[in-house]
Structures are given as C-alpha cells and as structure tokens.
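Annex B. Sample input.
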Amino acid sequence: MAARGFRGLLVCTGLLVVTPALSATSADRDACAASAGKPDLGGAACGRIIDDAGEAAAARVEALKNRGRRFFDIKDFDRAIADYSEAVRLSPDDAWALAHRCEAYEGKEDHDAAIADCTAAIRIDPKNGWAYNNRGVAYYGLHNYDAALADHAEAIRIDSRDAWAHARHGMAWMEKGEFDRAIADLTEAVTIDPKYAFGFGQRGQALFRKRLITKKGGWEPAIADYSEAIKLDPNLVWLYSSRGVAYSNNRQYDLAIPDCSEVIRREPGNSSGYNCLGVAYEGLKDYGRAIAGYDQSIGINPRNGVTYWNRGNAYWILAFKDPGKLNDAIRDFDRAIAINPKDFNSFNSRGKAYAAKGDRNHAIADYTQAIQLNPSYVEAYDNRGLTSEALGRRAEAIADFRTAQSIDKDDPVSKQQLRLFGF
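Annex B, continued. Sample output.
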C-alpha cells in the first residue's frame, strides 16, 4: 500500500513540471501575418510569437496587433484592448495600434478613452484617416455632431474615396436634421462602393427620417435602400427592424411584423425588434400591444432614446381619451432628452404634450429648443406659431408661419394660418 501511495505522489509531482513555451516558427509568422482581418485564423500562431521572449519586439508588436484585430472582430473588446495596450507599451509611437485601441474602446462605448487614443494617433500620424474616422465615431457617440463632421471631413480630405468617411459624415448631418446633405454623402459612399450594405442602410435611414420629419418624399425610397442593403448583407440584423418600421409607416403591416419578428428570432435580446413591433401595433391602433413592445425594448436597452420617444407618442395619442396619459408621455420625452440632449424630435413632441395640458409657456420653450437644434424643422415653427397665436402673440405667430413657408412653401399648416391672418 505504501508503495502505491509513493508512486501516486511521483505521478502528481510530475504534473507540476512546467513545459517551456514553444519557440515561434517561420510558419507561425506567415500564419499570423495572414490572419489580419480573418477572425477564424492565426490565433494560435500569433500567440506563440507573442509568448516567445526571444522574438524581436517588432515581430511581437505585429502579432499583438493581428491578434487584437481578431479579438475585435469577434467583439471581445477587452482582450483586443489588452493586446493593443501591450503593443503600445512595446512601441509607444505606433499610430495604428493607438487608432485601433481607440476603435475597441468605442466598441465598449467608452467615448472619452477612444477620443484620447485617436487624438494620440493623429498627433503621431496626421495623415491617419482611420484615426480621424474613429474619433469622429466617438464624437458622434457623445452627440458632438459638429466635431464628428470635422473629423470625417478631414478623413475625406486625406482620401476622397473613403466610403466609410462619407457614410459617417452623412450620419452626422442626419443627426443635425440636414437630411439632403446626409443623403448626398451617403449616395457618394455607395457610388464609391456599390456593394456597401452599411451605406445603403444608412441612406435608407436618412430617407426615412427626411420623410418622418419634413413630410417630404415617400417611404418607398427608404424601403428600397434597406432591401438593397439586406440583399448585399443579410446578416445586418438592424436592417430588418429599420425596414419593418418603414413598412409600418407605409401602412404595410403585413410586411412590417415579419421583419420585426425576424430580428427577435435571430437575436432575442435585440431591443430593436420589440421597438419595431411596437411601431407596427401602434399603426394598427393596438396601443396596449404597442406599449408592451416598447416596454420590452426598454427593458433590454434602457438607453435607447428613440423607443422612449415612440412610447411617449403612443401615450400622447391615448391622452385624447385619458388626459392622465399626458404625464406618462412627458416622462418618456424627458427620458429621451436625458439620453440625447440634442434630440429635437423629443423636444417638439414634449412641447405638444405641454400644449395639450394647457402649459403653453413650457410648450414654447420646447419648440424653441427644437428649432435651435434643427433650424429647418418646419413642424416646430408651426407648433410654436399655433401656441403663440393661442396666447394672443400675433406678431410672433406670423413670424413663425412665415419662416415655415420660407423653408417649405408647400407646408399646409403655415400656409393656412397665414391665409387666416389675411396674408
């Protein structure tokens, strides 16, 4: 018995022997280099180079950057950041590593860390369009759309054929309510790259929001762009929810609900699918199911201001029968504004809710804020004009209706009101 126990001890002791790391081979170097941009390849080979203390620092830096890119591509942002950080430690002036760590921080929505890294990359390499673009994305995440525009414009100046820069430039214009400029940028992006699914999807967003806010154009062009994007890349799940919402606005609910359901089928934890269903049920005037959809969307992602805006609008409609719902609407618009203080839609909608409560001064303040954020917002001028008229402020009302007409001569509200004033 004692002998068996002794042999067991020897076996256990043998398990504690540390095997030296294998040296990297030329095949590892080739495999690691070939893995850039291919998340399914090269991880082990890059790891052997990184772990080989005998490898030159430059070779380890390249391996770290390749493996970091691999981690980024599978959305393992923390491990990507760790690899890029080690690359920066070994090579502090590596603008590529800094710009890509910036991108990984942005993947975690750590906008400030992203901006710091991209700024450092630009300081080292002022011609690094990737760094300008990624910093622009971070500024966009902070709702600093002017800074985003400036960075993407610089990226375009560095490379006028940079489709991503044109697309992101257009997205920043979209958030400022400059929809025609957004569409022009996004059209340039898909002209440069006719197979650019993201570009077509974002142009669909710009066309959709132009129709939603300005009442100009139809829903069909947006739907066509979403459909083209889906054809080019069926794995971009957000396209289905976007097209579903567009179908709902076009009263094609039989097409909207399957698109919304496709998002939920593929990604049950994706909040946009439930928001999409909420919009469809709201269009069908099934407000109970609409609000349930919005509730589920918010439960998954409480930082999506659009869903609060949608639910607030549903409460606003319900308030025609139950005035107490106005308070629910205002709370939702408050939340949307807290998430994005530049959300001119929510300011305009909250103004309408205040006006319905008879709080016209609060309403005018909200319409004014919406106009400051989007000086081309015809509906906000009309709403402020109507509220000023109700307060007996005739001159202010006329001024707002005239401004609305100067922006859109076909706007029926301002045209009718000016006619009633004798103009």
